[in-house]
């Protein structure tokens, strides 16, 4: 961009007439200056200009990231010759790649609404209750437990305290979310469970044994309540495919979608042990901020410890889906598109190679599909929507 055009945009910023697209153009120009070796621009001057532009950006005031931390991240991308793209109130998005993407308006002939709170509750007798279509109040009674819908997108299991007979057989329920759905449930022990799209959790309607065991598929976030029987702590266990997680009281996330090829377990608080089910002596202990990866059957796990790879991650980014955001941290296009496919109930077809694109940033999950694709297209990726299919094009 010519210097005269840049000055024009800066003046429009000062006048308060700079459009979001022009702000992105101005950002990209400064980043190009930073990466061009022939440009005699000192760091102090560049930082001053960038700070001006930063103050004009429509970031969400409720974002978790503090301004200083974001600026630090921003400068990391400047050093890497990357592009920051910012569109709309409450939405910011970073794209990292080899080429600076053009800024262009893309019009999509159709649009797809984002997912919402919806799920199906399957009772012990096989009866199914569509939770999103039921009014608040008691839904059913399983044994000594009442099932109550308290808010849209949430149900609570409440033990009555009554004792009946001597039958200690556990009664199991299952909550399943479809594509474009999410839901929350509070288990009888007080544990809170969030289900992402295309996920499920199977659990007893009362925890009466020496341990609490639930089974999941897909992606599920837990805030486990502590439970005691006399002086003994009752452990909580989560079975996800061939992986078993053992906890006492903690917050963690498990991503076990089959199409991801691995099970990712991320610890936010407390302590958990992750092991392969059937192997009582193996496994690894995770600390807050760590994530374990267990490859799917048949995958190469050479060099990993007890079958697991453990790394430090941004745990807040991992569970951002629970708080209404897509958060990407150097995510490749195929993984990103799988997330979109689940949330918008779409299929994805590639008519062009996925390439080595990597994405970093945040987009609201409440955004319609067209807005999300429009942001991604600024990263030199192109799409076409055909009915229920997102086509990745040249």
TrEMBL record:
<keyword id="KW-1133">Transmembrane helix</keyword>
<dbReference type="Pfam" id="PF16344">
    <property type="entry name" value="FecR_C"/>
</dbReference>
<protein>
    <submittedName>
        <fullName>FecR family protein</fullName>
    </submittedName>
</protein>
<feature type="domain" description="FecR protein">
    <location>
        <begin position="174"/>
        <end position="273"/>
    </location>
</feature>
<feature type="domain" description="Protein FecR C-terminal">
    <location>
        <begin position="326"/>
        <end position="392"/>
    </location>
</feature>
<dbReference type="InterPro" id="IPR006860">
    <property type="entry name" value="FecR"/>
</dbReference>
<dbReference type="Pfam" id="PF04773">
    <property type="entry name" value="FecR"/>
</dbReference>
<dbReference type="GO" id="GO:0016989">
    <property type="term" value="F:sigma factor antagonist activity"/>
</dbReference>
<feature type="transmembrane region" description="Helical">
    <location>
        <begin position="73"/>
        <end position="95"/>
    </location>
</feature>
<dbReference type="InterPro" id="IPR012373">
    <property type="entry name" value="Ferrdict_sens_TM"/>
</dbReference>
<keyword id="KW-0812">Transmembrane</keyword>
<keyword id="KW-0472">Membrane</keyword>
<dbReference type="InterPro" id="IPR032508">
    <property type="entry name" value="FecR_C"/>
</dbReference>
């Amino acid at each position: 961009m010519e210097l005269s055009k840049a000055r024009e945009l800066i003046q429009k910023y000062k006048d308060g007439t700079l459009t979001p697209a022009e702000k992105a153009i101005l950002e990209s120009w400064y980043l190009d200056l930073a990466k061009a070796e022939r440009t005699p621009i000192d760091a102090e001057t560049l930082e001053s200009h960038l700070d001006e532009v930063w103050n004009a950006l429509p970031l969400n005031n409720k974002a978790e990231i503090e301004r200083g931390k974001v600026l630090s991240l921003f400068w990391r991308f400047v050093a890497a010759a990357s592009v920051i793209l910012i569109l709309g109130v409450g939405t910011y998005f970073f794209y990292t790649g080899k080429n600076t993407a053009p800024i262009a308006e893309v019009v999509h002939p159709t649009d797809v609404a984002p997912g919402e709170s919806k799920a199906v509750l399957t009772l012990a007798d096989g009866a199914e209750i569509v939770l999103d279509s039921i009014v608040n109040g008691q839904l059913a009674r399983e044994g000594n437990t009442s099932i109550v819908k308290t808010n849209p997108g949430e149900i609570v299991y409440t033990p009555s305290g009554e004792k009946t007979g001597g039958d200690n057989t556990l009664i199991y329920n299952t909550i399943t979310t479809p594509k474009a759905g999410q839901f929350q449930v509070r288990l009888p022990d007080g544990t809170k469970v969030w289900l992402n799209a295309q996920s499920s959790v199977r659990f007893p309607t009362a925890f009466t044994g020496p341990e609490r065991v639930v089974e999941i598929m897909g992606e599920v976030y837990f805030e486990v309540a502590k439970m005691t029987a006399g002086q003994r702590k009752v452990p909580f266990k989560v079975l996800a495919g061939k992986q078993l997680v053992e906890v006492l009281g903690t917050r963690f996330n498990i991503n076990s979608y089959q199409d991801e090829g691995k099970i990712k377990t991320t610890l936010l608080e407390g302590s958990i042990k992750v092991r392969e089910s059937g192997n009582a002596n193996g496994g690894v202990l995770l600390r807050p901020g760590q994530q374990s990866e267990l490859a799917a059957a048949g995958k190469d796990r050479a060099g990993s410890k007890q079958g697991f790879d453990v790394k430090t991650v941004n745990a807040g980014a991992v569970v951002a889906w629970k708080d209404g955001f897509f958060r990407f941290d150097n995510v490749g296009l195929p993984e990103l598109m799988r997330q979109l496919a689940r949330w918008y109930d779409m299929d994805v077809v590639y008519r062009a190679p996925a390439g080595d694109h990597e994405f970093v940033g945040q987009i609201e999950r409440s955004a319609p599909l067209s807005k999300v694709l429009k942001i991604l297209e600024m990263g030199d990726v192109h799409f076409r929507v055909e009915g229920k299919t997102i086509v990745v094009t040249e």
